[in-house]
Amino acid sequence: MRLLLIEDDPLIGKATQRFLASEGYAVDWVVNGADALLSVRTHQYGTILLDLGLPDMDGQEVLAKIRRTGVSTPVLVLTAREAVSDRIYNLDSGADDFIIKPFDLPEVCARIRVAVRRAQGRAEERLQVGDVFLVPSRRIAVVNEKDIPLTSKEYMILYTLMSSSGQVFNRGQLEEALYGWGEEIDSNSIEVHIHNLRKKLGKKIIETVHGVGYRTGTGCSV
């Protein structure tokens, strides 16, 4: 999943970006509202992490402008403002969650998972296609009660496909979900990751729609 981090503090931004990347997320990091709004217009994100104290405009204004464009991406507000009135205002303005600084990074990851699950209308964490389960909190697949370890990119491809089961994704869309700015992308990286997933989970877990892209398979027995 690709995330947008809007944070002007270099220490917080760098630490947050590094941790989220270690959890398998592709993270685009911007430090002001103008770049944030441009990023939202030009890329699709699974979640937006928004600091309120930005140098060029208040984060509340950024949130309002994001929502006015019709973007429904979950927004988690990160701020040192502790007033209840601030939390109420931002939640009523379209924020999905409110996290007070200093925050615990593993908790931020858990809140991201919850926000995405709500946006997708899912009540439980696990995703299932056929007899393959995906557990986002552990970033593993489970088949016949056996844990199957996945690399961060394998996990994110499987998550992208399973969270929109049946939808066809072309290579460009998968690259958009997996890679942030500045990350080097090999020309056949998607194909390699899918080949490895099929070796681990069975050939039927991911179908190739020739000339179009990939989707989850209808028969997933390993």
Automatic annotation (TrEMBL):
Statement: the UniProt record of this protein carries the keyword Phosphoprotein: yes
Annotated Response regulatory domain residues: 2-116
A molecular function GO annotation: phosphorelay response regulator activity
Domain of life of the source: Bacteria
InterPro entries: CheY-like_superfamily (IPR011006), OmpR/PhoB-type_DNA-bd (IPR001867), Sig_transdc_resp-reg_receiver (IPR001789), WalR-like (IPR039420), WH-like_DNA-bd_sf (IPR036388)
Feature: DNA-binding region: 124-218
Annotated GO biological process: regulation of DNA-templated transcription
UniProt-listed Gene3D superfamilies: 3.40.50.2300, 6.10.250.690, Winged helix-like DNA-binding domain superfamily/Winged helix DNA-binding domain (1.10.10.10)
Assigned GO CC terms: cytosol; protein-DNA complex
Domain OmpR/PhoB-type: 124-218
UniProt modified residues of type 4-aspartylphosphate: D51
Keywords from the named record: DNA-binding, Phosphoprotein, Transcription, Transcription regulation
Protein name as it appears in the record: Response regulator
